[in-house]
Write a structure and sequence with these properties.
The chain has 388 residues and is α/β, with parallel strands linked by helices. The chain has 2 domains: 196 residues, 3-Layer(aba) Sandwich (Rossmann fold); 166 residues, Rossmann fold, CATH 3.40.50. The protein contains 16 helices and 13 strands. The strands form 2 sheets. The protein has a 7-stranded parallel sheet with strand order 3-2-1-4-5-6-7, with helices on both faces. It has a 6-stranded parallel sheet with strand order 10-9-8-11-12-13, with helices on both faces. Strand 8, helix 10 and strand 9 form a beta-alpha-beta unit. The protein starts with a strand and ends with a helix. The chain binds alpha-D-glucopyranose (GLC).
C-alpha cells in the first residue's frame, strides 16, 4: 500500500510529532508500506520522516496563503495580501495534483485543516482520510469551508472523543473514527535528569510548561499562577517553546510574554527557553510539567509525553485532555482559565514530594498501556483498507 501524508508546515509541532509516530508505527506494522510525506515548505519534519524510511516531497504554497488564519477577516491588510496570494493558488494546486499523480498513492492522509481543504475541494481520484487534530466548530472561517468540501472525504480520524463529537456536529454525514494519539515510547521514557538542560540540581522543584506560543496554550495563565505560588517555596519555573505556525496574530511573542512576567512580578522566577529538539530530556529534567490551555485541548500531546517520561503532570480538565489522565491518580487536574486553581495544584505538588513520586510512577505505567504507539499502525492500516 502506498500512502501520501500531506502536512502544510515542515516545522515540528504536536500534529507533526503524531505524524512521525504514526509513520514509524505503520512501517512497523507493515514494512512493505510505501510512505510519502508531502509538505508545503522545506524543514526538519521532512528529514525526520526520511529517517523513518518515508520518501519526501515539497510543493511550496504561496506565503500569503500559508500565513492566512482565522484572524484574516479582521485584518484588511492581510486580507489584501491573501487576495494577491490566491492568484498563485491555481498554479500551486496544479503542481500538487501533478506530484500526487506521479506518486500514484492508494490513499491520501491529510494532517492539517489546510490540507483537508485542498484534498476535499479537488477530486484527486484517490480516497482521502482527514486526520483531525483540532476542533472545527469554533473556527468561523474554516468550518463552512470544510463543510462545503467534506463530501469527498472517506473518513475523518479524530484524536479524541471530544474532537469526534465536534466533527459529528459540524459534518453530520461524515464517517468518524476515534484513534487516540500515541507516544513514541522508544524516545519518551523515564530516566535520570540531564544536568545540561537546567543546570545541576540545586534542591529546587522545577516546574515547566512546554508548548507552542499559540495564545490559547495559556502561558499568560501560567505566569499569573506563578505569581500566586509563595516565593519561600523553593521552586523554579520554565516556559519552553516558541512561535511555530505562520498564522499571524494567533501567537504570543517572546517580548509579550516577558512583559507579562514583569507585570506579574515573576521575571526572576521564570526562565524562557526556545524549542528544544530533545524534548524527552527536557521533561526528565522537570519535576512538574504543566498544561494550562485556555480553550478545551483537543488532545494535549505534551501531557501524554510528560507522563511517558514519568513526570508528575498538572493538566486542565477539559476537552480531549481529560480523556487521557485520571485526575488524582496519574496526573492532577486544574480548572481551565483559572490561575487560582493552577496555582493551588502547583503549590500542592511543589510541597509534596511523595505525591509527585506517586503520580509520576502511575503516569509512566498509564503511558505504557494507553499511549503505546503499536496500536496506531494497526488501527490506521485497517482504516486505509476500509477506504480502498
Ligand atoms: C493539535 C492539538 C493538540 C494535539 C496535537 C496532536 O496541536 O491542538 O491538542 O495534542 O494536535 O494531535
Amino acid at each position: 500500500m502506498r500512502v501520501i501524508f500531506l502536512n502544510t508546515i515542515a516545522r515540528i509541532g504536536g500534529a507533526e510529532r503524531c505524524l512521525l509516530t504514526l509513520i514509524k508505527s505503520l512501517r512497523r506494522a507493515d514494512d512493505s508500506l510505501d510512505a510519502h510525506l508531502l509538505c508545503f515548505e522545506p524543514g526538519p519534519l521532512l528529514d525526520e520522516a526520511h529517517k523513518l524510511g518515508a520518501t519526501t516531497h515539497v510543493v511550496e504554497l504561496p506565503r500569503a496563503v500559508a500565513n492566512a488564519g482565522e484572524g484574516v477577516l479582521r485584518d484588511p491588510r492581510r486580507l489584501a495580501r491573501l487576495a494577491g496570494g490566491l492568484c498563485a493558488l491555481p498554479g500551486f494546486i496544479d503542481r500538487l495534483r501533478r506530484t500526487v499523480a506521479r506518486i500514484r498513492p492508494d490513499v491520501i492522509h491529510s494532517n492539517n485543516m489546510k490540507t483537508h481543504l485542498l484534498t476535499g475541494g479537488r477530486d484527486l481520484g484517490v480516497p482521502v482520510c482527514w486526520h483531525m487534530h483540532d476542533f472545527v466548530s469554533n473556527r468561523r472561517v474554516m468550518r463552512p469551508m470544510l463543510r462545503a468540501v467534506a463530501r469527498r472525504t472517506r473518513v475523518v480520524i479524530a484524536i479524541s472523543n471530544a474532537v469526534a463529537e465536534d466533527v459529528r456536529r459540524v459534518l453530520p454525514r461524515a464517517r468518524v473514527e476515534v484513534v487516540h494519539n500515541a507516544v513514541d515510547l522508544d524516545r519518551y521514557f523515564p530516566g535520570v535528569p540531564d544536568e545540561q538542560i537546567f543546570g545541576p540540581a540545586d534542591g529546587s522543584v522545577r516546574v515547566g510548561l512546554a508548548a507552542t506560543y499559540a495564545r490559547w496554550k495559556g502561558q499568560d495563565v501560567f505566569l499569573r499562577a506563578v505569581a500566586r505560588v509563595p516565593r519561600e517555596l523553593h521552586a523554579r519555573f520554565f516556559i519552553i517553546g516558541g512561535p511555530i505556525y505562520q498564522t499571524a496574530g494567533s501567537q504570543f511573542t517572546r517580548d509579550e510574554l516577558k512583559s507579562l512576567a514583569e507585570a506579574s512580578s515573576v521575571v526572576d522566577r521564570v526562565t524562557f527557553l526556545p524549542f528544544q529538539s530533545d524534548m524527552p530530556a527536557v521533561y526528565r529534567a522537570l519535576d512538574i510539567v504543566v498544561h494550562a490551555s485556555t480553550q478545551p485541548e483537543p488532545f494535549g500531546l505534551t501531557i501524554a509525553e510528560a507522563m511517558a517520561c514519568g513526570r508528575s503532570v498538572i493538566a486542565i480538565r477539559a476537552g480531549g485532555a481529560q480523556e487521557i489522565f485520571d485526575d488524582g491518580k496519574d496526573a492532577l487536574g486544574a480548572e481551565m482559565k483559572s490561575e487560582a486553581s493552577l496555582a493551588a495544584a502547583m503549590e500542592r505538588l511543589i510541597k509534596d514530594a511523595d505525591l509527585r513520586n506517586r503520580l509520576a510512577e502511575a503516569a509512566a505505567a498509564s503511558a505504557r498501556s494507553k499511549f503505546h504507539s503499536d496500536r496506531l499502525g494497526v488501527a490506521l492500516i485497517q482504516i486505509y483498507r476500509s477506504c480502498l
